[in-house]
Each structure stands twice: as C-alpha cells, then as structure tokens.
C-alpha cells in the first residue's frame, strides 16, 4: 500500500458526479481530489471553487492527461464514456466508471480490447449494489449453499420521478441495467435470454414512454429473474429483491434492519426477522439516500485497490455483459418477444 494519498480527477459533476466529489473530499480515506471537468465549464468551475486546491479543467481529455491526476472517476453521460475510457487506458490510469460502461456492446468490446492490450485491468464499473451491505450479505448466504440452488430472483426498482427526457430507452439502459447486474452477481452466471414488456403506462410518464416495464431474464443455468422498473411511481425510491432458493428465501431492502431470511431449518442466521412480518421505515426520496453507504464503500474500495495497484469490484467485462443484455432488452421491448443474449468469448473479444 502506497503511503501517499491517491490524486483523483472527476469527469462530470452533475447530480452523481457532485455527490462523488463530496464523497472524495469528506468521506474517503487515502484520496485527495485534485481536478474536475464537465461539459458545462461554469459548473466545473463552481464545484472547484468550493474546494481549495481543486482545479477546474475545461477539456475532460486534458484532465485525463494531466500529470497530477493519478486516477479518474467518470460520472459523465454514457455517450462520452468510450472516448474518456480509452483515454484513461491509454494514459494507464485506474478508472471508476459509472454505468453504463458504454452505450452499446461494440464500443464496450473496444474498451475491453484496449484494456487487454495495455496488459493490466484498469476499469471498475459503478454497479454500487455489489457493495451494499445487504446485497453483499445475500451473495455470501447464497454462495454458502445454505439455501441450496438459487431458483428465482424477483427485483423491484421504483423511482419517485424522473425528468421528461427520461424515455423508455433510458429506463432500460440507466435503470434496468442495475437489475441486470444484480442477476448476474447473485446467480454468478450470465443472462441467456431477456423479455421486456410494457403494459399500462402511468400518466406521470412522458408521451410515448412505457413506464412501468417488466423484464424476465432466463439465466444460463436455467434460473428465472423478474424485474419491475417503475421510474415515475410518485412515492419514493424503492429498491429491493427476493431470492428464492431450494431451502429458503432472502429479501434485500425491506426498509428494516438486516436481511429478512426464511429458511427450511428456521435458523435465519443472516438477519433477524421483523416482528410479525411488519413493513417498517420510510421510503427514501432518491438513490443517493438509499445507497449512500454502498457508494461510500464502493469508492473507498476503489481508492484502496488503486493504492495497492489492484482492481476490485465489477470489471469491464461486467460492464460489457450488462450493456449487451440492455441492448437485447431494448430489442425485446420493441418486438414484445424473447431475445437471446450473445456475448463475445471472454478471453478473445475480437
């Protein structure tokens, strides 16, 4: 572990990026924020002005090339991720990239190829739920074998509201993509087939937007995953999942302390059962509240790994696989039919 703090630059300081700025400055050990950049230079300058010794750099590629910047956190829109990731890889700088990795499978493959040509993994993808204590505990429980084979996974993902510009494609690429990664993470295997259906649309959605959506994933090993994504629910930010195994179930995100487990032997060692099965707690307003701890743990793990010269968490392959599934999901949404997910060979993306 290197003794000096990691010098980090942030690309994109909108809602998510500004949240990461505050996290790096106030809650991340072993890191120092040195530069920020944004498509809106005035916004970057305003963020930099709040923090002494942080520079605002107009061109994001200049930030990547800056000799003071040792690692880069990308929180810019997905459309510019490929260019920025390729620059980070060319300059051999470890990168934490918010999802999506890129906007399509072909560009994601180019990122993986560049990373492999460089001789070492550099890209971690921001699927923060893997760092959420409840999701991590559920993964540990499933991997222990106490619940037998994992048979089913049911996901719920609801936002209070989104901007009018958030259309059906964004619901898939920016929201459902988290359920894609959760399915791959908890099952420990790839998604083989996806079906996405839109039924009655809420009046709160924009014209032509299909919200809510329901997705069905068929896993490579035969397991099934259902996912509801409803981004204009008007209530709050609700994210939870229930995993059904051969000998019990586990529920994440029930707005109560700890995992809710029901096992065949009634041990329930992963968490205590809420008395009487009552629903408790309030619904948070947005993702920054619901997953605040997950984001903190994710960024801290990334910084610690960078200082060790290592990579932890979701890789560029995970980002690519999620993008490929999202593209298949959009095809299914248009046709109403199941669509097979085709992935390149993991060791030979060319």
Query: Beta-strand percentage?
Result: 15-25%
Main pleated sheet: 8 strands, mixed
Percent in helix: 25-40%
Query: How many whole angstroms does the radius of gyration measure?
Result: 20 Å
- Return residue spans where pLDDT drops below 50 for at least 5 consecutive residues: 266-279
Which homologous superfamily in CATH is the superfamily of the largest domain? Dihydrodipicolinate Reductase, domain 2
What is the element string, with H for helices and E for strands? Answer: EHEHEHEHEHEHEHEEEEEEHHHE
The DSSP helix count reads 10
Cα distance, first to last residue?
A: 35 Å
Q: What structural class do the secondary elements suggest?
A: alpha/beta
User: How would you write the strand order of the largest sheet?
Assistant: 13-12-11-7-10-9-8-14
E-strand count = 14
The CATH topology of the largest domain, please?
Answer: Dihydrodipicolinate Reductase, domain 2
């Amino acid at each position: 572990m290197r003794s000096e703090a990691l010098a980090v630059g942030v690309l994109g300081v909108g809602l998510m990026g500004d949240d990461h700025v505050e996290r790096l400055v106030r809650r991340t050990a072993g890191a120092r924020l040195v530069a920020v950049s944004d498509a809106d230079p005035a916004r970057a300058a305003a963020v930099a002005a709040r923090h002494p010794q942080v520079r605002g750099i107009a061109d994001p590629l200049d930030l990547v090339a800056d000799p003071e910047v040792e690692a880069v956190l990308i929180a810019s829109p997905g459309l510019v991720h490929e260019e920025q990731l390729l620059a980070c890889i060319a300059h051999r700088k470890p990168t934490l990239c918010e999802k999506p990795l890129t906007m399509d499978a072909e560009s994601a493959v180019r990122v993986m190829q560049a990373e492999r040509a460089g001789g070492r993994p550099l890209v971690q993808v921001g699927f923060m739920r893997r760092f959420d204590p409840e999701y991590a505990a559920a993964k540990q429980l499933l991997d222990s074998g106490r619940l037998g084979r994992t048979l089913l996974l049911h996901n719920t993902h609801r936002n209070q509201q989104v901007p009018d510009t958030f259309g059906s494609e964004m619901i898939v690429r920016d929201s459902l993509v988290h359920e894609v990664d959760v399915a791959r993470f908890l099952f420990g295997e790839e998604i083989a087939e996806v079906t996405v259906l839109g039924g009655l649309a809420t009046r709160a959605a924009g014209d032509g937007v299909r919200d809510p959506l329901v997705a069905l994933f068929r896993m490579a090993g035969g397991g099934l995953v259902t996912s509801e994504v409803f981004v204009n629910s008007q209530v709050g930010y609700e994210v939870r999942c229930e995993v059904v195994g051969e000998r019990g179930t586990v529920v994440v995100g029930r707005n109560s302390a700890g995992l809710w487990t029901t096992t065949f032997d009634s041990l329930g060692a992963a968490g205590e059962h809420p008395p009487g099965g009552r629903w408790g707690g309030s619904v948070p307003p947005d993702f920054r509240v619901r997953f605040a701890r997950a984001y903190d743990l994710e960024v801290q793990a990334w910084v610690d790994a960078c200082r060790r010269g290592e990579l932890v968490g979701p890789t560029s392959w995970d980002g690519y696989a999620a993008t490929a599934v999202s593209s298949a999901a959009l095809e299914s949404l248009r046709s109403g039919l199941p669509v097979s997910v085709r992935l390149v060979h993991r060791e030979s993306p060319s």
